[in-house]
Amino acid sequence: MKISLGRQSILLLGVNGLFVLAGALSGTFLNVYLWKSRPDYAMLGWFTISQQLALGLTFWLAGKWVKEHNKMSALRLGTALSGTFYMLVLWAGPKAVDWIWPLGILLGCALGLFWIAFNVVYFEVTDRENRDLFNGWVGLLGSMTGIIGPWFSGLIISKMVDNSGYRLIFTVSLIIYVIAVVFSFFLKKRKVSGTYRWSEPWQQLSRSGSEWRPLGLGLVAQGVREGVFAFLIALLVYVATEQEYKLGQFSLITSAVALVSYWMAGKWFKPHYRSKGMLTGAIILFVVLLPLIWKVSYGTLLIMGIGSALAMPLYMLPMIAAGFDLMGMSGENVEKRVELVVLRELCLMTGRLSGLAVFILIVMNGPSLQMLTWLIVVLGAFPLIGWIFMRKMLTQTQQ
Predict the structure, then answer these.
(1) pLDDT(331) > 70
(2) Domain ranges in the chain?
(3) Which of the residues 134, 147, 247, 314 could staple to 277 if both were Cys, CB 3.0 to 4.6 A apart?
(4) pLDDT single digits (tens) 261-279
(5) What is the pTM of this model?
(6) Fold exhibited by the domain 8-184+204-393
């Protein structure tokens, strides 16, 4: 039987693609922009922590609106606030570093609103049969935007004087966010049902024998790595080369590899491969970090980036699909889909904040490149820990 996606799924992919493109254009260079104003690792760590706190709390608080009212308005508001964030960065200019917490909170709220709505709608427009296909397309579009966006941004920023290139790119992102809001109006308003249960995430995790426990621990482990890697790797590429163009080139190469790997995963990766695939991906994600122990250079970072791009679909697709499969296991879980999406994000937030807390402690005591390298290697082992937590559940779902 041929597996395909419906019209609403394709529209949702389009909105997601525009949102990710806008983020790829500016988000890749946002931390570099802040770093050039104030070269301070701790400042960037606190900026990321403020985002993650706001993102997790927004998921939890906005869950009520998404479940009981109009989830499409949350998606549009999140997109609009993302545009507002870049508008404020443009207005603040180099003084944006003096407003790290309010700007981080605004960006976190924007991302939280968009992604809680996207994840719930994604669950509603896909099923167990085409979920891996949809995930593959999400990864494919993310890789395509990762190829085009940062390379284009790096080229423009390098060619223009002072910070004029940054201002242009941030303006382009603002325009794309507006277009994404327009596209979102073609998505149908989804039905709402039930009452939002504020304590459901905690009840699910505290219940004896809950299948959400191993998944929750796996998500925490994923978040430990993700919280730091999301901003530090790109910054290290810039620090090693001192060229925005090189950072754009790095993203172009790694995203091109990811495009191929996500395309292959979306086409051939099946549910019965999930456990072995996730383990293989976790091992590769760790091994490609080891060259950094000898030297942190553009070359070793590129080895890490290419290896990670190859392995990430093997690791991420089982993680994502397993969670959404649990949501669809029973009518009761389907009814609680909003709360369960919130549960996923709170687990990821816990992991991200844990990793960032360790990062802050290290850089506040006088960071060295060697210390940061060992931190990257240690955090890079956490996907293996995530697989250990989830291996039994993955084995059961593939039967």
Answers:
(1) no
(2) 8-184+204-393
(3) 314
(4) 877 877 776 767 778 888 9
(5) 0.88
(6) Growth Hormone; Chain: A; (1.20.1250)
